[in-house]
Predict the structure.
Amino acid sequence: MLPYKDISKVRITQPYGVKNPRQNYAAGVHSGLDMVSDGDKTIIAIGAGKVIRSQNTGSWGSHVVIKQDDGLYGVYAHLAQRVVNIGNTVRAGTMIGIEGMSGNSTASHLHIELQKSYYDPFSHTDISAYLGIKNEVGSVQLIDDMFADDKAWVMTKGISDGSDQDRPVLRKEIWAMLRRYDEQKEG
């Protein structure tokens, strides 16, 4: 699930993980994705969970944090309006706000990121892989390969290939899966 209902008019303006000498990122790199819609600016939850923060403060400005059922924390920042409150339970696809330019922002956009532990700038994870989209500036492009879900699972959890989420995966199995992913991508 992506944070916009209609991705056909959504662009990535700042990818995940880039270093920018003009920006002073707490994590040293851009810890999320900056996205902008040229159409409907409604922001929706990318996963089910519970709202643990809904406020206007600091560099994120008006923002929402959802502790997702998968254990990750989804951060939605720079909103013009929030429509959920702390304690609300949301499903994937629930409207949580409107794209905006609050906080440290020079134009309307959504900064979205995933954290493995709440409010730790070094616990961010590759949200583009989680969402199944290419991590590059321009129109949002879905990753079209049979291993995208497995790769996203390994990158966010690091413990399972998705076939049995209760069984830890050996390092050699992870490397084999990533090799299959690379071979599929090249082929």
